[in-house]
Specification:
Length: 162
């Protein structure tokens, strides 16, 4: 049950809460192996700083999740969040056929949800998403605690995959 009076703390998943380093190799090959990349997500180790921030945020906010993962990954994502002891919360995911840049899709969703609820903060590792969210007036925490590959950054911006 959600309390609609509590502000929202919006968390990204990949490289914010989940360490994707072990599966980034699937994006470094040509062609990229997206099926393998997402199939390996249940094995992501948690990122301690992100998890701690989500748990701390849950004291004052309703924690929700905004990810570039495709909808087909929902079951694995829900199970992963539960296994890490993260708060249950709504998860906004990309449609399976949506290839728009993350900065566009995430900002669209942030604007929509902020129309009816206070968004206290967005926590995300994608610098372009963070830049756009800040320009739109959202409070942003830049998740700079995971290592990312150039292939993952390209996937986030150019290929609209994560």
């Amino acid at each position: 049950m959600t309390d609609d009076s509590r502000p929202l703390a919006v968390f990204d998943l990949d490289n914010t809460l989940a360490d994707t380093a072990h599966r980034q190799r699937f994006l470094e090959r040509r062609p990229k192996d997206w099926a393998a990349f997402f199939a390996a997500a249940p094995d992501d180790p948690p990122l301690e700083r992100g998890v701690a921030l989500a748990l701390e945020s849950a004291r004052e906010c309703e924690v929700v999740y905004l990810t570039g993962r495709p909808e087909r990954c929902r079951e694995d994502t829900v199970a992963w969040l539960a296994a890490q002891g993260l708060p249950e919360g709504r998860i906004w995911m990309r449609r399976n056929d949506d290839r728009r840049p993350a900065r566009r899709t995430k900002l669209e969703i942030l604007r929509r949800i902020s129309g009816s609820r206070e968004v206290r903060m967005l926590v995300d590792d994608d610098e372009l998403v963070c830049d756009e969210a800040e320009r739109a007036g959202f409070e942003v925490v830049r998740a700079r605690w995971a290592s990312t590959s150039a292939a993952l950054k390209e996937a986030q911006e150019r290929e609209g995959r994560t």
